[in-house]
Amino acid sequence: MSAQPLPPIRRLVTGHDTQGNAIVWKDEEIKASQAEHGPFLTRIWSSSELPPDVNTTDDLGLVDTGLANKGTICRIVDFPPKSVGMVHRSITLDYIYVLEGEVTLTLDDGSKTKVGKGNIVVQQGTMHGWDNETSNWARLLCVLISAKAPVVAGEELNAEVPFQI
Question: InterPro entries attached here (predicted)?
Fold first, then answer.
């Protein structure tokens, strides 16, 4: 699949003028690029630390963060019809909001949960994957925040990412 069938995202970024007044710094359409493992990703914004520095004059939507970083990431992820994701873990707290379509949240315990338009998943450093079992595209808004590693039975769990983005 060479083209993204869902429309590009309009991204507005605010900032300040020299008098300290709020301004719209960027107002543009941004397009997705296809990730190595299948879905299309639209980078919205990121920060490399917590708390984020809001004094930057760099376009932090252009930063290649990989799956996760030590700050925050906001991206749109578009899943093609009949696609199967890879189960993975990032050491992040994720807020995943389904904007369009339906996906299946797959966990390493074998469970599969349908998540539809308007639903939100709070993902807390678990092994998970996203499948699109439908004939339609699905679009998710994903906000990832660097987190402390989960600890189970006294053992700290590590990131497990079998793909590149």
Answer: Cupin_2 (IPR013096), OryJ/VirC-like (IPR047142), RmlC-like_jellyroll (IPR014710), RmlC_Cupin_sf (IPR011051)
Please check whether residue 79 is in contact with residue 98, taking contact to mean a CB–CB distance below 8 angstroms: no
**Contact between 93 and 145 (Cβ < 8 Å):** yes
Burial of 23 (0-12, 13-18, 19+ CB in 10 A): exposed
pLDDT tens, residue by residue, 75-123: 999 999 999 999 999 999 999 999 999 999 999 999 999 999 999 999 9
What 3-state DSSP class applies to 14?
A: strand
Average pLDDT over the chain, rounded to an integer: 94
How many domains, in total, are found in the chain? 1
Domain of 97, CATH number, reads 2.60.120.10
- Has residue 112 been placed in a domain? yes
Domain of residue 87: give its range.
30-156
